[in-house]
Amino acid sequence: MTYKQRKVITILGRDIKVGESCELSFGVANLHTSSSVDVPVIIERSKKPGPVVLFTAGIHGDEVNGVEIVRQIIAKGINKPKCGTIVCLPVINVFGFINLNREFPDGRDLNRVFPGTKKGSLASRVANKLVTEVIPDVDFVVDFHTGGAGRFNAPQMRIVKNNPELDLLANIFNAPFVLYSKNIKKSFRSVLSKHGKPVLLFEGGKSNHIDNNITNTGVNGAKRVLNHLGMLSTKFKVSKPKNNPVYILDSRWQRANISGMFRASVQISSEVTKGDIIGNITDPYGKFNHFVRASFSGYIINVNESPIVYQGDALFHITTKLKPSSSEKSHLKSNL
């Protein structure tokens, strides 16, 4: 990773010198009650030069597990770097977080309005402030998300294809899965990419829920990345990954053929074969029991945990094409 050595960085209009720690307030508007809403931005700068890393969460107000990951990074002191600077913004959409809603009070999805405008909607103004007053001096971003609408995501990193730097960082973070996905228009990830800022987007768990496994995966991944950058304090240990991530080139949703009461019978992250029974849909009156069989062979990377589903609802997200591992590539070459 390349970065500029800066004696002073500017965030939210405040100049921060090397060796300085501070807490700034990220705010755009008061509540309708005129009460102020102050979202802390925690900044820790080492005296030694290094990258400026930004940890963010809560772009969607109901994605509390991402907020918990960044909270733990701060609470444990992981955000105090051996070199460089670590910036933590635990809750971007504080308006949604207050009510545990995904969107802003204006009904807009913050992650679809970037880069925003200074005089636009409330969501657009927050996006604009983030882009113009927080990220200019940032070198690298890790953005934490969770699944929505009652669907539980396996811990996974999402990056664009054909970017060796992101491949390396995702491998170091070591979430169980790495999903190649395009940058969505007007998303935070998209605007960061346009500004030349590498970004790892972590997905795990579901909305309005905190899962210990997801939290631990996120925190441990953050420590590995900081250790790779030479920023992690020596008082922290970095766990060695048990396995390499599974790289996903393509995946498909399996949808409900009928409506009813739904229960999955496979665990998240498990590998299934086409035709395996992976769940069942029943009616409230005991008249039928419909078995859901896997339409594809692959890993289950998302499970719908809603007890009630309708015909056409997404039930499972299943991988359909994987990137060959190094050992598989070597085996293929030896057989040519």
How would the blueprint of this fold be written?
Elements: E1 8-11, E2 14-17, E3 21-26, E4 39-45, E5 52-57, H1 64-75, E6 85-89, H2 94-99, H3 122-133, E7 140-147, E8 151-159, H4 164-173, E9 177-180, H5 188-194, E10 199-206, H6 212-228, E11 246-255, E12 260-264, E13 271-272, E14 277-282, E15 289-293, E16 298-304, E17 308-309, E18 314-322, H7 326-334
Parallel strand pairs: 5-6, 5-7, 7-10, 8-9, 9-11
Antiparallel strand pairs: 1-2, 3-4, 4-6, 8-10, 8-16, 11-18, 12-14, 12-17, 13-16, 14-15, 16-18
Helix pairs in contact: 1-6
Structural overview:
- This protein has 336 residues and is α+β, with helices and mostly antiparallel strands.
- The protein has 2 domains: 8-228, Zn peptidases (Aminopeptidase, 3-Layer(aba) Sandwich); 249-322, RNA polymerase II/Efflux pump adaptor protein, barrel-sandwich hybrid domain (OB fold (Dihydrolipoamide Acetyltransferase, E2P)), CATH 2.40.50.100.
- It is 22% helix and 32% strand.
- It has 7 helices and 18 strands.
- The strands form 3 sheets. Strands 8-9-11-18-16 form a 5-stranded mixed beta barrel. Strands 15-14-12-17 form a 4-stranded antiparallel β-sheet, with no helix packed on it. A two-stranded antiparallel sheet has the order 1-2.
- Strand 1 and strand 2 form a beta hairpin.
- The longest helix has 17 residues, at 212-228.
- The model is unreliable at 327-336 (pLDDT under 50).
